[in-house]
Design goal:
single chain; 22 strands
Length: 377
């Protein structure tokens, strides 16, 4: 999308004279229109027709006679797509109120697509504007104005400054995690099935580390934050006792002071999530244990989607060496935000390069790719 040089309207010229005389102004809005205007009409326009979207404007001083005004629009909630043919910059006249200050016509227009709920589209505008006396333009940054959009746009160019999150969902909002760490437990693609035995201490080895390596072998040092997760499905006809999930070694070492204990009172599905700090005593550990305590023979316990990884992960992925499909370890979406947040709506989501490359490599037809992008899987 390309625009011709902005044309200051007659009302804009009158305001410029007032600025030279010492009065002040503030640029208020940027509005986009689908109307195509002849160049000869632009200076006499007082308003735009067929306005499709608008946004707050923020001015930044260039020199004593010019300012740059920025704004951004996106397609969130947009029902119908349209072509951007004209952009109008509005300002506050001390006598007339809000006026159309300048108009920019597209030499090459751009299409704003409707919001499909899958991915977001948007445009940033930067209008270089003559004002005569830039000292009389209010350059105060409004935290609710589009200056924040411009700041985010600039920030996105510096990935090192951005906080990241991941999702395996098609919309980027569910199956959310602040970490994409690999699972360093092996054989987790196959659930463990355990039946109670009315024993006080019924012990099972659940999952081992990859290649029976220790934390030390994997290069994980004491003080490292790791996360543990598992899905537990409990079924049966009578319930008592408890399940303890612990990280085992030559001697019994709890993941937490009392381990993670689940009391059996009914059939239920439980998601276990715990963030832990590796201690020196763990350095030679190689596996995860569970212990049933006084669980009746009528109870069956299924342990599934077990994962232990560096960081704070809430998304299950198998050990990379055991994945049979790249999508099993490949997150569909990566989110970027200025500050780390546990709210997925705070992130700007886009498909990961790995996922897109996989689609291009495995799909022969472009319509197959379009189906993936619009949530067709």
């Amino acid at each position: 999308m390309e625009f011709k040089q902005a044309v200051v309207t007659q009302n804009g010229r009158a305001l410029m004279a007032k600025l030279l005389a010492g009065k002040s102004t503030q640029f208020t809005k940027i509005k986009v229109s689908s109307t195509i205007y002849p160049d000869a009409q632009l200076a006499n326009l007082t308003a735009l027709t067929n306005i499709k979207q608008e946004t707050s404007a923020q001015a930044y001083g260039n020199n004593t006679a010019t300012v740059s005004v920025v704004g951004a629009i996106e397609n969130t909630g947009l029902q119908t797509g349209y072509y951007i043919n004209t952009v109008g910059l509005y300002a506050m006249d001390p006598d007339k109120g809000e006026i159309l200050y300048s108009v920019s016509s597209a030499s090459v227009n751009g299409y704003m697509p409707p919001d499909t709920g899958v991915s977001k589209s948007g445009f940033n505008f930067k209008i270089y504007s003559e004002v005569g006396n830039a000292n009389q333009v209010d350059l105060t940054v409004d935290p609710a104005a589009v200056a924040t959009h411009a700041d985010i746009s600039n920030l996105r160019n510096d990935v090192a400054k951005l906080k990241q999150a991941w999702s395996n969902s098609y919309d980027g909002l569910t199956d959310f995690s602040l970490s994409n760490s690999n699972n360093f437990l092996a054989n987790t693609k196959f659930p463990k099935t355990i039946i109670g035995a009315n024993n006080t201490n019924q012990l099972f080895t659940m999952y081992r580390l990859e290649g029976d390596q220790t934390f030390r072998d994997l290069g994980i040092t004491a003080g490292t934050k790791v996360s543990f997760m598992a899905d537990v499905d409990i079924t049966g006809t009578e319930f008592s006792g408890s399940i303890h999930i612990r990280f085992g070694s030559d001697k019994w070492i709890s993941m937490m002071p009392d381990g993670i204990s689940i009391n059996l009172i009914q059939s239920e599905k439980i998601q276990i999530r715990a963030t832990l700090i590796v201690t020196e005593n763990w350095m030679n550990n190689t596996y995860v244990d569970i212990r049933l305590a006084n669980v009746p023979k009528t109870v069956t316990v299924y342990i599934d989607k077990c994962k232990m990884c560096i960081g704070d992960s809430k998304i299950y992925t198998p050990n990379p060496a055991e994945a049979t499909d790249p999508l099993e370890i490949m997150f569909k979406y990566r989110g970027l935000a200025g500050l780390e947040s546990s709210d997925p709506s705070d992130y700007i989501w886009s498909m990961t390069n790995e996922y897109m490359n996989y689609l291009f490599a495995t799909k022969a037809e472009l319509n197959d790719l379009a189906s993936q992008v619009t949530g067709g899987i």
